Amino acid sequence: MLGHSHATSGALAWSGAAVALPITALTYPAVQTGVGHLGIADLLLGTFLTAGAALLPDADHPNSSIAHVLGPISHILCTIISKVSGGHRHGTHSLLFVALVTYGTWAGVHWLGKPFTLALVFFLLALAVRALHLCPGGDSVKAWGTVAVLAAAGTFAMDHWLADKPSWLPFAVGLGALAHILGDCLTDKGCRLFWPFDIRVRFPIIERTGNKVETWLISPLFVAGTLAVLWYAITRQP
User: Fold this and answer.
1) At residue 206, does pLDDT exceed 90?
2) Rounded CA gap, 164 and 112, in Å?
3) What UniProt keywords apply to this chain's record, in alphabetical order (predicted)?
4) Which of 2, 23, 73, 233 is the most exposed place for a label (fewest CB within 10 A)?
């Protein structure tokens, strides 16, 4: 699937989970009192951040959206990750990767606090900006410079709303990564969900990445579904 489709699938997954699940499920293992739901601010912030997190598994591809999000720095990192993980749709497209980024986010939020949170927010917003085509295309300084400026502005704005240790952030990051690999399972190549075991899981609804089914049906449905769920969540508030 294309970066735009992954981002919108992450947004839909988060908005649906945030509305359907109790706050105790979204913030586990942090201890929360009550069985209510997230507030509107956290719901909206999580939508953008999960959209960005849905690009994380493609860190194994030197030509992916994430590889160009911050220019040469991100490209070099993705090249290294690609070699370490075994190439595209290997280690980073597995349930093990989902567990690692979820736990890694929890550890960072829990032990490092606000500096880690803001750094992660900046990176996830940069991914969302790139995937949702809110910046010039290509990999020029104009492109990734715009991404950096918009992500920095978004991080500054979110800093006024986010808690120092948002307990729902690990769930959002893990959910975004999971939405990505499940989306790639809809293509003919599928994913090695149980990596390092070479078991490829696929449900080939999308014959080719970027084809008409993905571009004109699946991705618009993700967008429409996200807007519908957010509208429902906002209008049901007292």
Assistant:
1) no
2) 10
3) Hydrolase, Membrane, Transmembrane, Transmembrane helix
4) 73
